[in-house]
Each structure stands twice: as structure tokens, then as C-alpha cells.
Amino acid sequence: MAVSFLANEVSDLCIGKPAVRSLPLSAAADDLAAALRRVARSGAAACVAVTGPARAVVGRVGLADVLCFLCTDPEALARPAAVFSKPVSALLPKDGAGEVRRVDPRSSILEALDAILSGAQVLAVPLRAGGRRKQLVGGGGVGGAAAGDFCWLTQEDLVRYFLNSIGLFYHVAARSVSSLGLVRTDFLSVRPGEAALSAVPLIRRAVATETAVAVVTEDGHLVGEISPALLAACDETAAAAIATLSAADLMAYVDNFGSPPEHILRAMRAGLKDKGLDAMLALIEDETLSSFSSLSSASSSSDEEAGRAQLRRPSSGSYGRRSAEEPVVCSPASSLVAVMVQALAHRVSYLWVLDEDNDCRLAGIVTFADVLRVFREQLL
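The chain above was modelled as a monomer; its predicted structure follows.
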């Protein structure tokens, strides 16, 4: 079974994938912010590859990385314009977290799986114009690849691949995530009243692990999450929200980005004034005025709600905003296949686990990485 199932090459999972947008290490952070906005509008995954000499991939950066950098650099919030003149290399994690690893298109599925399970967050696969399948030839997707182009191969791609052949794994597919030992209790979390700024190190870890930061009450109930995916639907001004709001208020800001509640805006302005962050305050005021003008213009039509919708940023693919803001949850008794289907349907790489026998308190998290580890064990 394993021989026939794993006969496919990595390139077979890349058919139709677009080339990744990339920037050199020397590019300015301002160029990165502009590139991320273009990526978000295109509907592609909301991150940009960073390349070194000979276009070697050295990392990838998303808006969450930009926001974390703005909130941790002592001068960033005070002088945001100066920060965006720094090179993109300054935004890359210094600890090697979120590793990007290059794999050959002719690599086996097993090799790709082992690369992910050994620490790679995402795989960079060079696109080639030809291959064993005729679909690789022609315009668009892989067939239209230029020399040096590559695409991402993610945990989501591998999970979908295994789901398509789930019948071969019937002996584990119906087992509960609890019985398989997939419910992790070492999840990232903050209290609703904690300063969102204190969660920045956790957001960095969430980016590297393809998860999110749970917002949990003192009695263990999940009230929401701060995820890189939802932050990707905002823009650079969200750094002001992280710097001034509580975790709960940050969730409200992100959920209503483009037209946040007035009390949230007041709290942000007050916080920025107290911290003496006049430059960031001016940026927020300009953004608010721009949003108000857009809303006023849109409201002249007969459909005011349609006008509000125009202020929302589009979905950003597998790392972009979900259609629903509620965290995606499951039960310890949920089957492996049910969790896979649910996560893929919501375009997330993790599910929060609520214990129905304990007043639906948060029991842990199930991640794609651990799901893939189950399949790897079946192929030994």
C-alpha cells in the first residue's frame, strides 16, 4: 500500500499552483508592505518569499511578522516611517523559527512529509515546465513557470493529499483525536484583559507553528483567538492596536477592521497619546479619515452595508481571513477524519478542543503537524 500510495512526486501536488511573490533580502520593508497588499488583493496566500543570492529562498514574511517587528523594536512605533526604510532581512526571525526548506520537484511525498515533520514550516518547490504529467505543460500555474520560480507546499496540501486516500488508513481514520494522543495541552494563550502587547512573543510562535494564540478566561473557557491569519486581513496600522489594547479589544478591532467600534478607536488614541507615540497617532488619524471618507461615499448608494463591505480586505487564501470569526473547535471524541475535513473546510491548520464533559472548557489543540505525524507512523 505504502509503495503505490507514495509513488507520486512532490510536483504532482504542485499542479496549478501559482509562482510565489518574492523580494530580495536588500528590499525595503516598505516594499514588503506594498507587496503584501498586492498579494492580499490577488487572493493568494498572504505572505511573501525572501530570497538571497541566486534566488535561494531564505524565508517568508507575512503581515503578522511586520506587526510583531513594529511592536518589539523600541523605535518602531515612535518612528514608523523610519522602520519601513529598513531591509526586509531585519524582519526575518533570528532563531530559525518558521524554517523554509527547498525540495526538488522530483522528491517523493515521503521526503516532503519528513521535511515538514523535521521542522520545516513550509516547503519551496521549484516550478518546472515539464514533468511526468502533461498538465504541467502550457500556460498558467506550473506550466507557465519562468526560470527560478517556485511555489509553496504546505501542511494543508499534505493533509488534503492524505484525506483523498483516507480509505487506505481506515484503521486510524475513525479513531478519536484523544485516543490517538493528538490533543496538545501546551497551547499558546492569554487572558482577555491582558495587554495585547504581552502576546507578541506568542504571536511570533504562532506564526512559526501555524497555530494561533487562544484568548481564555480564568476558568478555562475559550472566548476567541489572535491568529496570524486574521491579522493578515488588517494593515500596518494594526500595530497601534496591539500596542495599546487588551487582548479582548484587539480581537474586536481585528474582527471589525476597516470600521472598528468607536470605543476601540478612543482607547487606541488615548493609549498612543499616553505613550507619546505621536507619529503612529497621526497615521491612525489619517487611516480613520480615509475609512470615513470611503464609507461616506459608499453610503450614498442605496445599500449602506455594501459600502461597509468595501472597507474589508479580501480573503488571503490559506493564510487569510476566514468567512467566520469564531474559532474552529472540535471535541476530544472527534474522529481523525472529521477533524481533517473540518480544518480543511475552514482553511485552518489547527482546531481548538473543547471538553464537553467539563463545561466546554478548553482542553487543548490539534495541529496539522501532529495529524501528519499519525500518517507518517502508518507508513513505517
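Residues 278-299 form the longest helix (22 residues).
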